[in-house]
Amino acid sequence: MSGHSKWATIKHKKGAADAKRGKLFAKLIRQVEVAARAGGGDPESNPTLRTMFQKARDASVPLDTIERAVKRGTGELEGVTYEPVTYEGYAPGGVAVLIEALTDNRNRTSAEIRSVMKKTGGSIAEPGAVSWQFERKGVAFVPAEVAEDDVMVAALDAGLEDLSAEGDVWRVTCGPSDLPAVRAALEEAGIEVASADVTMVSSTSVELTAADQARAVLKAMDALEDLDDVGDVYANFDIPDSLMQELGSAD
To answer: pTM here?
Structure first.
């Protein structure tokens, strides 16, 4: 699991995620709208929408709210038109950062992201500077109490590409379009899926062992994620478990 994922887990356990639930809902709804606009409003024929729909449901977004977002995306209801835009850059310590945003005003979004990167000790890079390090994958997490063979048997035919132990969970990796099938296969086998999402996985990592540097990177990640137009932030840093726990306890 990447350091960023570990940090998100710590914040969730401490209840910090609840304080931003309203903002999270807004971002998820926007992602549903864009997915519906790009591939149609039927989740069965639109894998991206199916994944975003389930992601919103996992976050407890009301079903009728999600359905209205789909209708706005397909044009059945009026709404703002958002377009996807990606920014690349570096956080403190040379950590590669990939920022995916959905915006109705590119100038505003670009200015906000540049401002946050500058204030937190990072910088914006040219397109292609860091994106080559990342590959889009479907990732699901299931409890480590489940036997490895059981996870393999359940998910292999559905598209499982890799299975790795990540502390108290198994990390199940597959192609992005295979994620709904992999999740369904796991659940049909009676295996609880703690979370499942399409994400960007980095082929390289920057290890952060100094507390001040790790704290600076995490501050930058939080500041970027706090922007309304930013949907997802990916980075290639890795922080040792012991240091991550220390930072989480001190937060």
So the answer is: 0.83
Question: So what's the pLDDT on residue 251?
Answer: 56
The pLDDT value recorded for residue 65 is: 95
CATH 1.10.10.200 fits 3-74, yes or no: yes
Q: Are the beta carbons of 102 and 84 closer than 8 angstroms? A: yes
CA dist 166 and 111 (Å) reads 37
CATH annotation of 133-202: 3.30.70.980
